[in-house]
Fold this sequence. Notes:
It contains two helices and six strands.
Amino acid sequence: MAIESNKVVGFVSIWAPESFIHHLFVSPRKLRGGVGLKLLDLSKKRYPRLSLKCLSQNSNATEFYLSQGFTIAETIGNGAESYHLMKWKSQT
């Protein structure tokens, strides 16, 4: 959880058995301020591999995860319901 001035500004929720990121949320006021990056970095330190689903139409999120070393393993579905299954694996 990311907290600034006693207010939650972001959180990450991971299903541990599969190292699956269910949610990575950043307050709209804090977007592009490094909160998501810090939450993702903490997650990477705890898990040697991570996966997540990202809506295909959410190009901002897709680009963010790609820039952080995730790859698109598979794209599932069509249209507004399609999503990328994205994966990341530690290099160490």
